[in-house]
Write a structure and sequence with these properties.
Blueprint (H helix, E strand, L loop, with lengths): L8 H14 L23 H13 L5 H7 L3 H14 L1
Helix pairs in contact: 1-2, 1-4
C-alpha cells in the first residue's frame, strides 16, 4: 500500500490507538482499512477498547455500540473525531 503523504494529526493518533489494541504497526494501518475485514477487530471486545482510548485521547464521548453500527473504516472514525473535536 502507498504511504499517506501529510497524514492529519488525528489520523496519526487514531493509527497509534488502533496499533496499541491490535499489535499492528501504526504505519501499516491505512485509512481505508475496514475494522473487521482488514484489521480483524472484534466489534464486541476490541472496538470498544479502541473507542475508549479515542475518547480518552480526544476527550470525546463516543459510544462504541453506536459507532460500531455507523462506521466501518479507520477513515470514518477519523472523520467522526475531527467533526466532534471541531464542534468542541
Amino acid at each position: 500500500m502507498t504511504a499517506i503523504t501529510n497524514p492529519s494529526p488525528t489520523l496519526l493518533a487514531v493509527q497509534n490507538i488502533i496499533a496499541e489494541v491490535t499489535g499492528y504497526e501504526p504505519g501499516d494501518i491505512q485509512p481505508a482499512f475496514h475494522f473487521e475485514d482488514d484489521l480483524q477487530l472484534d466489534m464486541i471486545t476490541d472496538f470498544p477498547s479502541v473507542i475508549k482510548r479515542v475518547n480518552q485521547h480526544f476527550t470525546t464521548t463516543f459510544v462504541a455500540k453506536e459507532l460500531a453500527i455507523e462506521i466501518d473504516t479507520v477513515d470514518e472514525l477519523v472523520e467522526r473525531v475531527e467533526d466532534e473535536t471541531e464542534l468542541g
